[in-house]
Amino acid sequence: MGMKSKIVLGAVVGVVVIGAVSANSGDADGGSAGKGSSVSAQQQPGGADPGSGADAKPADGKTGDKSGAGKAAEKASQAEQFKAFVRKNGTPQEKEAVAHVTKVQGAEEQNDILDAADVYTDFTGGIMGQGTGPAKLIASAFADWKQSENGLVTVYDAEGELLGNGTF
Known about the structure:
This protein is α+β, with helices and mostly antiparallel strands. The chain has helices spanning 2-43, 53-64, 67-75, 78-89, 92-98, 132-145; strands at 101-105, 115-121, 151-156, 162-167.
């Protein structure tokens, strides 16, 4: 009787594990579909119907506050957004260093697991050139701009050579 109980218990555990795996993959697909539908609802005038007011308010309230600024921010490149942040909040040294930034990549895709951003500048000479000091300031200003559990920002010169890096 003990052997039969172990087999039945193993089968039940197997079914539960398979059910949990299939439910999680269904949530992931359903979650992305839900996000897509709420985005399209927000883009249309009067996006949500009056019957779903409680469910639609958090999404609308969260993006509604930034709707004008959000559209302008989407049009601006990541480098321009970064420069604007530093112009407003940075120290004079950071402002001077960030003026050399030409391109920022990876600042928008954050998952707090492994976030990596690249900042390109117009400095020359690689790690032995004049851009290594300002690169630390740029990395520091980037950390003020974006926060992540596990982010790494890398600063490059005009030829793609490493100048410095930092966490954010």
